[in-house]
């Protein structure tokens, strides 16, 4: 049976060769080879990009874990921010579960942030602007709660040092985000519903769903990935903070 198939294959190629001519036959074969080569190269490139993203996600989550747990516990706001980052970056549920497990592992040792950041750059060599983008996300985590502890600042300084980012650059960025937080006034309930683009009779499930959609859209991690300007980032951060504040305001009101 196999012999018959081989003979038939040879006859088909011979017929094609005789019917269309040598040059057409070679052109067709060349096009097929080029198409295969392009497809193979594209597949290899996509695989490498996926691996790059997986490694980057792992190290960002590891560093976030150390900042979140630096003051002894992971707050509700910090846990929510981690959940948003996982939703935005995990390729599928399997990767999400892996990253969540990595977070839980790394939060138990907050004293090796400098070395983890160094390993990060060995595994994922990033130019300075991309390193600073990662540091921004870490700063947002440190400032997501009202309490910005000295331990969180210490860990951020260790990571900045490993990233070869000057302490003055880190301090300036922390100050700019802190100023945004300190100048805001408390929202009214009507303002909170308006920010979340909801009617005043929306139930808690609708509020949570809308909050997740808006938070994902304006999340600092997403803004950084889109390479927005410094000014656009500040506007986005302010919007993100208002979304968080509005959600907390409405949630407390509905849970009374």
From TrEMBL:
Pfam families: DnaJ (PF00226), TerB (PF05099). This is DnaJ family molecular chaperone. PANTHER family: CO-CHAPERONE PROTEIN DJLA. PROSITE patterns: DNAJ_2. CDD domains: DnaJ, terB_like_DjlA. It comes from Campylobacter jejuni. InterPro entries: DjlA_DnaK_co-chaperone, DjlA_N, DnaJ_domain, J_dom_sf, TerB-like. It comes from the Bacteria.
């Amino acid at each position: 049976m196999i012999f018959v198939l081989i003979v038939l294959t040879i006859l088909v190629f011979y017929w094609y060769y005789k019917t269309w001519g040598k040059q057409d036959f070679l052109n067709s074969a060349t096009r097929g080879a080029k198409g295969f080569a392009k497809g193979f190269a594209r597949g290899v490139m996509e695989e490498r990009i996926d691996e790059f993203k997986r490694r980057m996600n792992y190290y960002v989550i590891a560093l976030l874990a150390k900042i979140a747990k630096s003051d002894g516990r992971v707050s509700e706001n910090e846990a929510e921010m981690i959940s948003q980052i996982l939703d935005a970056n995990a390729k599928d549920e399997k990767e999400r579960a892996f990253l969540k497990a990595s977070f839980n592992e790394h939060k138990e040792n907050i004293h090796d942030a400098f070395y983890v950041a160094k390993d990060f750059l060995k595994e994922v060599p990033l130019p300075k602007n991309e390193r600073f983008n990662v540091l921004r996300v870490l700063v947002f985590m440190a400032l997501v709660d009202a309490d910005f502890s000295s331990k969180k600042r210490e860990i951020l300084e260790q990571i900045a040092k490993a990233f070869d980012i000057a302490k003055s650059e880190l301090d300036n960025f922390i100050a700019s985000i802190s100023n945004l937080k300190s100048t805001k006034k408390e929202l009214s309930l009507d303002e909170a519903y308006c920010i979340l683009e909801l009617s005043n009779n929306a139930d808690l499930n609708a509020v949570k769903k809308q909050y997740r959609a808006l938070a994902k859209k304006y999340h600092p991690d997403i803004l950084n990935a889109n390479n927005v300007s410094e000014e656009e980032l500040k506007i986005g951060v302010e919007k993100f903070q208002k979304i968080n504040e509005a959600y907390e305001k409405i949630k407390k009101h509905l849970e009374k």
